[in-house]
Amino acid sequence: MKLQLIFLTLFLTLIQAVEAQVKFEAKVSKEKLGMNERLRVDFEMNQDGDNFTPPNFSGFQVIGGPNQSISNTWVNGKRSYSKSFSYYLSPTRRGKFTIKQATIEINGETYKTLPVKVEVTASVDKPKDGNSSDVIASENLHLVAEVSKSTPYLNEAITVEYKLYVSPRINVSNWKELDSPKYSDFWSQAIDMKQLKVRNGEYNGEPYRYVVLRKTVLYPQKTGKLNIEPLTLSVTVDVPTNRRDFFGGRLYTSIDKRVAAGNRTIRVKPLPEQGRPDDFTGAVGTFEFDVKVNKKVLSATESLEARVSVFGNGNLKLFDIPTLSVPNGLEKYEPEHNERVRTNLSGMAGTISDTYTLVPQYKGKYPLPSLSFSYFDLKTESYKRITSDEIIINVNKGPEGNTEVEGNDESNETFKKVVTQVGNQFRFIKTDTTLTLVEKKYFFKSTPYWLALTLPLLAIPVFLFLGKKREERKSDVKGNRVRKADKLARKYLSEAKKNLGDQKAFYIAMEKALHNYLKAKLSIQTSDMSKERIQRLLKEKNVDEATSIEFIALLESCEFARYTPSSGSAMQQDYDKASRVIAAMDKRL
User: What keywords does the record list, in alphabetical order (predicted)?
Assistant: First the structure.
């Protein structure tokens, strides 16, 4: 029993002696570095000491330090102490060097570190400081642009996804965009990211967390080598340090790190010339085509609607629909263009259509000739043509005219049908008249005479009142500025309508109209305009949110039009939207 007690006492004493053993050692951030890199040297001890003496660092120049750090923690009732002196060194020449011994006094005893050998080589391409927070963030944070297809056809949809990869070694607390890509050679549509989801994945074979920050659908508008500009972010990164808190937890330092997705290059193939139809207008995808009327039997002067539609998947907003041609005797009005198109990761899908109002003038049969629509099919990589059927319009009642109408027979040859007339075509004009004798009346002392005499006298106070109001209006500088801006808004909106078809002139006039409208209604200058402020002011004026969103979308359309091409139908749609939104806002403002 006594022997066991003796062994137990010796064992506990040995443990305490081991725990009380003093540690004093030198650590370097790297054992091999280039002339343009930096070296960090830490002299660490597990007990407090005095009279620390560093070595002379032969072959290096001290550019930082000594920096002193102390860590004192308690875990399960046991105290853990650490103290270090850190130096940052810059090599002065190439070669092999030795970090000599440092000394310190602990409890009256002098302790020395072991020498550490370091090799300095020629300068490296990318200098790194392995313990630098910036380097740690760079090695564990990556922004990647993933392109769905690197060799698309002209007007073929591709998708760009921007993913932020974060290593488990660091944390990301915030991020914001510094520079967004312009996509100057593409038609682009951003996919709405309602909620960002963190997923687990791999980057270069290592486990990472990642989040998809942005998805954009692009339609290349030029052939050849095109560049996709990078997305640049400023990210707040929490990087672990060598320091710990009172409870032993590792302390983090926050740095702002700038990351970019890098340029991506794609090669856009031109559409083949072989087999290209004469009526091809640039449609690329998979489509259906039809022509329909809402009635085939009617009377003269009644109206019918003819709808020309293209539906399917492809670049629906980037080509024009075939134009409906009608025979003589049918009056055709400008079509109403309608787009019901949604954009997802596979591109645009939906329906575009032109609806014509037709009014027959005479009794007879009117053939609407067949229309053809051609597109490039991406699945078969060939051109396809769809031809609609001929439609016969029967006008049963109405005047008969000696009019020839043209149409197409089944052999696709043009033929003419004669609409015969019966009777006199001028029978609706009356030739008999009935004249009535008008009684003579004298002007003197008549009612008009007295009115002409008294009205100028009565008009004097009216003119004085109007003159006073005119002077007040001239002195109202702010009101005149508002009225002038409102007048300019109407002027430029009218100018935009005149320039439909000329993208640059149209959107310049449209943007001026919107800006002057804001000046007139919100008393805001162009230099002070921002989307957030405009939305806030419109909300204060009780403009409903949907109208406000549409107005901001119009401003964005004007801005994007500088970098992306627009079709004539898109410009018409933007003009109609502007007229509707301004009318709706006028009711509130």
Answer: Membrane, Signal, Transmembrane, Transmembrane helix
